[in-house]
């Protein structure tokens, strides 16, 4: 981040993982940003190559054992076990969940949790044990077996192709993105004729959006 923009690190993929997936102590993250700002202000930024030095300094200031950084997290999510190819659950209960797995996995996991809580069967291709050269094939195959589809489209990628094909499969998908990204979505999304629902805080905004969509109360 440029000098003076350290706070924007919270919205970067790494920041989202630490904040929304691991629920790391925000005070510790604030201390890291403060140290980075101080280094830049002192003209030391270009000579500081190892991020572990910043982590070490922040840990010393906060009296945290660097060998047990996980102690700063209120939750440590389990890495989902890959499941074999198959079609669990009836069609009317299956919900395809797509998005950028690298940048927005925390929000996809949150959507998955809500889908399960509501009694539906989530389908996330990243959690299915298929070979790399068959991901495209199986993604569309699984999408075709679902009545519902929810796509996070803040960071466009392979999910845009899935969004377009969802209409061919007579699926009315739910498209969600961050409020900050709503004005800069790709031309494909803007012209496809589907409504995009924005969110700010994941825990506050996403549950009612998903509930309304699955219950048929959210206009597409």
Structure, described:
- The chain is an alpha/beta fold.
- The protein has two domains: 6-72, no CATH class; 91-214, 3-Layer(aba) Sandwich (Rossmann fold).
- Helix content is 40%, strand content 10%.
- It is built from eight helices and five strands.
- The protein has helices at residues 13-21, 26-41, 51-62, 105-117, 135-144, 159-168, 187-191, 202-214; strands at 94-98, 121-123, 148-152, 174-178, 196-199.
- It has a five-stranded parallel beta sheet with strand order 2-1-3-4-5, sandwiched between helices.
- α1 packs parallel to α4 and α4 (105-117) crosses α8 (202-214).
- The protein starts with 12 loop residues before the first helix and ends in a 6-residue tail after the last helix.
- The mean pLDDT is 80.
Strand content: 5-15%
Give start-end ranges of low-pLDDT stretches: none
Which value, in Å, is the CA radius of gyration?
20 Å
Helix/strand/pairing category? alpha/beta
What global shape is seen?
elongated
Nearest-integer average pLDDT: 80
**Whole-number total of structural domains:** 2
Largest sheet: 5 strands, parallel
Spatial strand sequence of the major β-sheet = 2-1-3-4-5
Strand tally, please? 5
The top-level CATH class of the largest domain is: Alpha Beta
């Amino acid at each position: 981040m440029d000098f003076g923009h350290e706070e924007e690190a919270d919205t970067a993929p790494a920041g989202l993982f630490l904040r929304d997936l691991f629920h790391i102590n925000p005070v510790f993250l604030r201390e890291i940003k403060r140290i980075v700002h101080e280094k830049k202000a002192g003209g030391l930024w270009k000579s500081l190559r190892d991020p572990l030095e910043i982590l070490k300094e922040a840990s010393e200031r906060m009296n945290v054992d660097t060998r047990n950084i996980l102690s700063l997290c209120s939750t440590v999510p389990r890495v989902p076990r890959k499941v074999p190819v198959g079609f669990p659950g009836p069609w009317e209960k299956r919900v395809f969940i797509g998005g950028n797995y690298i940048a927005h996995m925390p929000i996809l996991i949150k959507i998955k949790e809500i889908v399960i809580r509501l009694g539906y069967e989530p389908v996330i291709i990243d959690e299915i044990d298929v070979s790399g050269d068959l991901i495209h094939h199986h993604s569309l195959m699984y999408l075709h077996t679902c009545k519902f589809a929810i796509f996070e489209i803040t960071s466009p990628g392979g999910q845009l192709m899935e969004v377009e094909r969802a209409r061919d499969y007579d699926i009315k998908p739910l498209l969600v993105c961050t409020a900050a990204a709503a004005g800069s979505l790709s031309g494909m999304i803007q012209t496809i004729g589907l409504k995009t629902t924005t969110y700010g805080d994941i825990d506050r905004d996403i549950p009612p959006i998903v509930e309304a969509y699955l219950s048929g109360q959210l206009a597409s």
